[in-house]
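User: I've been trying to design a sequence by hand for this structure and keep getting stuck. Would you show me what you'd pick, starting by listing the structure so we're on the same page?

Assistant: Good idea, let's start from the same input. This is the structure you sent:
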């Protein structure tokens, strides 16, 4: 996959400097765990990380972005301790390159893919028979990057399976990650969008007008793992916490399916 390494490296440096300002180092005797996580986990993971931090005193700093961008930063040497991807593909890439500790990898969460519309009272549609291009009119269909970001990859697969892709592809507005795609619908810049069910639940001014059949796209699975060389006691403790009943309750409360410990 082609990307501008220099640009990505500069972006990571800027993010690292900002993180250092916003999140000063932990107090003596405490550890800091840096987590790179798919943007769609933000609302739930912020809550779970805060609970872990309160329980252990260890500081958890989370950087959210599309899984592709985070994986590329890890490839460039960004100092992450944990990676949570929104699909197995990007985790597989890092594992094949020896950049994650395969012994710590596990399937963490599941999700559903939905079609959302701007406003709280939009009418539901039947995806198998709907005229999505007609519903869009002159508007755009907001999606995460369809060839790089998991939500976009899943969305393209589902729309293709249902026969809609050839008609809607000229109308697709691609965003850097699924939360950015959702923001286009919330603001009304795009009348429709393809996002995860959990993102829709966390948003304000949108309606879920259809749920994509699970058979129309690959299973939506979020793997988690320690980045290679970082699987110390604190990192393993955080990964164990993510698999605990307490964390599972948090994620399920936000609409995710969560693996049992």
């Amino acid at each position: 996959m082609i990307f501008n390494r220099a640009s990505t490296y500069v972006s990571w440096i800027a993010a690292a400097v900002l993180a250092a300002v916003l999140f000063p180092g932990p107090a003596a005797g405490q550890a800091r765990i840096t987590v790179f996580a798919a943007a769609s986990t933000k609302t739930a993971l912020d809550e779970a990380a805060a609970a872990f931090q309160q329980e252990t005193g260890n500081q958890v700093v989370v950087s959210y972005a599309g899984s592709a961008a985070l994986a590329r930063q890890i490839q460039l040497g960004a100092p992450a301790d944990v990676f949570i991807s929104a699909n197995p593909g990007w985790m597989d890439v890092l594992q094949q390159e020896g950049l994650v500790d395969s012994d710590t990898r596990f399937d963490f969460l599941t999700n559903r893919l939905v079609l959302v519309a701007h406003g709280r009272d939009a009418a539901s549609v039947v995806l198998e028979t709907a005229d999505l291009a007609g519903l869009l009119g002159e508007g755009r269909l907001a999606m995460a990057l369809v060839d790089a970001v998991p939500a976009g990859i899943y969305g393209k697969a589902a729309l293709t399976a249902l026969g809609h892709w050839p008609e809607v592809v000229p109308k697709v507005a691609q965003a850097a990650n699924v939360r950015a795609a959702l923001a286009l619908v919330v603001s009304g810049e795009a009348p429709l969008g393809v996002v995860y069910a959990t993102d829709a639940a966390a948003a304000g001014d949108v309606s879920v007008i259809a749920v994509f059949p699970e058979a129309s796209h690959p299973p939506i699975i979020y793997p988690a793992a320690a980045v290679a060389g970082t699987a110390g006691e604190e990192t393993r403790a955080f990964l164990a916490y993510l698999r605990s009943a307490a964390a599972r309750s948090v994620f399920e409360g936000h609409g995710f399916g969560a693996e049992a410990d």
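That's my pick for every position. To get oriented when you compare it with your attempt: The domain at 5-110+220-258 is CATH 3.40.190.10 (D-Maltodextrin-Binding Protein; domain 2). The CA atoms of residues 152 and 244 lie 30 Å apart.
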